[in-house]
Amino acid sequence: MDARLDFFADPTTGKALKQFMAMGKAFRESSLPTTTQELVSLRVSQINGCAVCIDMHTKEAAAAGETSVRLNLVAAWREATVFTDAERAALELAEEGTRVADAAGGVSNAVWANAAKHFDQEQLSSLTLLISAMNMANRLNIITQQPAGNYVAGQFH
């Protein structure tokens, strides 16, 4: 399968996407734990059905030391006992922030308050931007049918 577009072949979109991808560096440098970032990125991508992002974030998480048990249970995190309370709060925020069309009213106050119990202002800001950025990345990749399976951990760092 070939992608419909090569974003970097066009100077305007290439420039815009380089700026977009620079957010990833800012997230990596934030105090939001890398594990949480990868779990959230993976869950958002699962919900949206973005194969290339699922491939990327599964491999990035594994390279960061994440276990296959936890990676395999992300889709069923509510029933799994392997996630911390903070990770569960982040995953719940990611789900409500991604399923805004399904959840009339968007992110509930209860979900936000739970996340705020586990993350400080900087971490909440990073988490909110990460969820939003992942939703954008998923849509870009799905619309243009970017192929999955060949990502190598660290490829975009």
UniProtKB/TrEMBL annotation:
Domain Carboxymuconolactone decarboxylase-like: 17-96
Keyword Oxidoreductase belongs to the record: yes
Keyword line: Oxidoreductase, Peroxidase
UniProt-recorded Gene Ontology molecular function terms: peroxiredoxin activity
Short name of one Pfam family: CMD
InterPro entries: AhpD-like, AhpD_core, CMD-like
NCBIfam families according to UniProt: ahpD_dom (TIGR00778)
The protein's name in its UniProt record: AhpD family alkylhydroperoxidase
Taxonomic path: Bacteria, Bacillati, Actinomycetota, Actinomycetes, Kitasatosporales
